[in-house]
Model the fold of this input.
Amino acid sequence: MLQIRNLTKKYGKFTALDNLNLTIDQGQIFGFVGPNGAGKTTTMKIVAGLLRPDSGQVYLDGIEQKEHIKEFKERIGYMPDFFGVYDNLKAKEYMEFYASIYGIEGEQSRKLSLELMDLVGLSDKADSYVDSLSRGMKQRLCLARSLIHNPEFLILDEPASGLDPRARYDMKEIIKELNKRGKTILISSHILPELAQMCTNIGIIENGKMMVTGTVEEIMTTRGTASPLVMRFVNGQEKAIEILKENELVDNITIRDNSVSILFKGNEEEEAMLLTDMIKNGAYVNYFSREESDLESLFIQITGHTEQDTGEA
Amino acid sequence: MKINPVYKKELRIGVRTIKTALIILGYNGLLALFGLFAFYATFEYGSRYGGTVNYAKVLELYAIIAAVEFGLVLFTVPALTAGSISGEREKQTLDILLTSKLTPMQVILGKLASSISIMILLAFSSLPIISLVFSIGGVTFLDLLEFMALIIITAIYIGSIGIFFSCLFKKTTAATVSTYGALLFLTLGTFFIIAAIVILKDMKAAALVTQTDYIRKSPDAGYWILILLVNPAMTCFSMIENQIGTGSRLVTFLREFGVTSDWIESNWFFISAAIQGVLSLIFIYFSSRLLNPLKEKRRFKKKD
Done:
């Protein structure tokens, strides 16, 4: 289990992480979502031991990071958002180099390297030079590399960025397979629908603060009330809008063609009262429902950013 | 014995590049050019136009070849080490190394060892050229071993400075310029310091003579002369002087421009090698601190 407690990191005057708290249980695929500069990569780098936080602690299975950095690193596999490869090194040699760092040498190293390359679908590229591989292949090789010491916890920073749809699908399947094999995974991405399909839990970060965490279903349910309430009228739309404007629970009114969309802070009973009120005042309502929320609209609601705005943090 | 993984990887990559082959070719080519020219000038040219060969002076052939080889070492080591860490940073491979089980010290030592290995390879590949001096005698195999030791010590010394700057700066260019700057300071700057002290003292003495009219003693830099112990060129000079039996030139220089003792004068090579060894350890220690992401530090970087 990963626990992040009161993590704060500042770059000069800019606060990248502001008292961030996060818990990731064993076996989860935790999707880390946030707009550009929200603090995703900073958090991941701190957990991977690449950045020193100004304050706060990180624990993995009760092991405190700063005090036991060596043990901590042995339990973590890290794949950065941007990474390079060595020229003049073959894929299997690349794997064997990292294996040797963990004391895995000789036949054992060769066997393990080939097994992991097979897992990520690169067994036929073992003798190819790393710099000759495509971006998708390099991403998969880097993922295989992060598994060389059999870590229990994987940190994958934007693993699918820059990949074509096919390579993205392959990466997603590999990540699911790794989770089945018992790996706990922290993954960041700005491709939200993919995270929703893959992750057991998500966390939305904004301005270095964790805005919301939970399973995808939990977040949809608890935040569902914030989804727009959409209504359509056969007649009496103007009258209905007047009523909506007077209602204190209505935040925002958007009129699109034949429908009216509002942000309504009330509960289900108050929704029913609103509907009754409009009908009583002569509005012919033929559609009245909360818009089904998806991860993307939820993200926009919480952060105020669109998917296109998001990127590496 | 477990070999440092970074060292093994660096060697593997190194021997596959044309760069290493070109460095060996250039290094030995230049050395051979100087060696053969000195050989020609001493024997062929000397006997043809002078009618005689001064065998008392032919040992200077060794001095010339050794000095040229040493100069090439000084010139090559910064190029090999200054990009070692910053290069990994630029290639975006450093983060992955630092999240592995490797400690920053292991990364530093692996990089330094690979650079020294290349220097040893260069030194050994140049042995046939150095062996030119065996044809005239006067230089023993032990002398050559001592020279090899000097090359290794200097490679570690300058290499540790190169790696230090490579950790300090984000860009290889800045690290390379700084390493060559430091090298320039150590080899020439230390002499300038001595010269500056002597000149200032001389000016003061001249003023005193005018005022009090007492007999002037030629000034020296006092104990400041010991700053030359960090100068690798002086270390090389002292070794060659001892080997070819002209050590008195070093003693004369030290006595004229500073204050030393007989013990320091006669053990200059070993004392300076020891001091440079200690300095190397200090540079390596601070490099590993700079590379450790969890240590509090300040790194110089260009503002975007």
Q: What stands out?
A: Chain A has a mean pLDDT of 86.
